[in-house]
Amino acid sequence: MKCVKVPLRQLNDTRIKLMEKGQMNMDYRIKALDEFGYIPINGDVEGYEIEDIELEPMKKVAHNFSELLEDELSSEEIENLKTSFDTIGDIVILEIPEELEDKKYKIGDAALKFTKRKAIYMKKSAIKGTIRIRDLEFLSGVDDSVTIHKEHGARLKLDVREVYFSPRLATERLRVSESVRDGEKILDMFCGIGPFPIVIAKNKKVDITAVDINPEAIKYLEENIGLNKLNGTIECHCGDIREVSKQFKTKFDRIIMNLPGLAYTFLDVAVDLIEDGGTINYYEFSDSYEQGIKRLSDACRNAKKNVEIINTRKVKSTSPGEWHVAIDGKISEK
Ligand SMILES: C[S@@+](CC[C@H](N)C(=O)[O-])C[C@H]1O[C@@H](n2cnc3c(N)ncnc32)[C@H](O)[C@@H]1O
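^ thats the input. predicted complex w/ S-adenosylmethionine below
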């Protein structure tokens, strides 16, 4: 390696001068030998004694996920992996395709180094069952699945193995929260650990009733109420909304129905519990809005009520051609 040779006492000053002029080769280590220092250079440098000696290359610090895996995977495989990252608090959940299963621990270690989070888990199943959770496999870091996720200034504690939570709904929660007016009585029929209630009650002076069938989700919602400074109130109920709702003595100005696979089977309950002029925030998986609008309209017709569709939007993509869609309907008595 071509080097500038200087007496050791001049080493530091010379190094800085060469660096300032962009003449130092940063890929190799400076060497001290006998009374001299050897500084690696890029090309010709005038005014110094030049010598060719062997130098140790700098240990390369990988700056990104791609660099960490470039010897293992193709750039296309790396790009696909990157889009699958879900960061929940200090935990990262990855989707690793079957053909890369044998490299899962290397991928997990790279993700840990790159993200500097506490733990990396891999999705082992789709979201399934009544309580909407998925199987996860621990890959790297510390196997502790409890974390606190921050969203719009709210702190949301949860166990990623025990409850449903998606950071990809953050924008939707903010959007709903912004459309809420102070004073509303709100029912979240499928509240999970309470991201809708917590974000809304942080921002608005409202009374929220939150229901979930998963006792773990309600346990975390109760903790989350304590973790956040709320303007509104949240009352928690654990159980099946169809049963729990029988004890409600009041109607609601807004009902949130985020159980997209099955919410339509509970539309009769929602339409019955909504106040005249109230809003239902209804969600489902679909390739269009028509199916959801028809379901909401049919439920209203059966209950002899009117619905005005006030907004529709795609919340997130779920699979090619299918979306998690939101439909907001204003319900009124005939
Ligand atoms: C898709 S998750 C949504 C959770 C939450 N709204 C959120 O955005 O994170 C649906 C939730 O509905 C709950 N659930 C399913 N069936 C239910 C029922 N019949 N009554 C009440 N909760 C139910 C599940 O336990 C799950 O937490």
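The domain at 2-52 is CATH 3.30.70.2580 (Alpha-Beta Plaits).
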